[in-house]
Amino acid sequence: MTEADFLNATRTSYDTMAVGYDERFREELAAKPLDRAVLAGFAELVREGGGGPVADVGCGTGRVTGHLRGLGLDAFGIDLSPGMLAVARRNLPGVRFEEGSMLGLDLPDGGLGGLLAWYSTIHVPDERLPQAFGEFFRVLAPGGHLLLGFQTGDEVLHLTDAWGSDIDLDFRRRRPEWMAGQLIEAGLTMTARMVRETDTEGEFPERTPQAFLLARKPIVSGAREDGGTN
Predict the structure, then answer these.
(1) Average pLDDT over residues 215-219
(2) How far, in Å, CA of 72 to CA of 45, rounded?
(3) What is the pTM of this model?
């Protein structure tokens, strides 16, 4: 699949299901205390590092963007889908939301105190992840923090229907160890890894365990933060 193919499929699918997605997941974080704890830890690390703007890349309807702002961060959203962004702007008037791709972020080098990719890398083919993670590294300020959320596993789930809408979307489950290796290859330093077991009984049942990775851009490029060299 070419870059244009998967970007178009992702954009069109989310445009189609934007309203249904918002209705289904608007209150999901309220039912996920451990997820909120991970986001709170990320927010505290960003604040302790001096703050700065935080990009929610693949923000969708902006539900997590708004949560980050409630945690005191200067968060804004970026997403491929105009339909999802329309919902985000309706739900959070006055908050900055921009159309864009994580494979080519329209952001300056080193301008972000933090970057969140909350279940947004799951649609990116494996061979394109280094490009995305390279962009994450580029736009983070030295010492800036990155948080990824994604489903664990080895398979690709393909869906053609969601909430009555026709879609064409791949959901890639990945191993945390492999994802951490990709982040390290991009130049980032791992901070924490967490796997939450599958929630099958709650209001938002899941198919797989959920993984969260925290990483940091080294303060001195090419050097470890313990004073050694790579």
Answers:
(1) 97
(2) 12
(3) 0.92
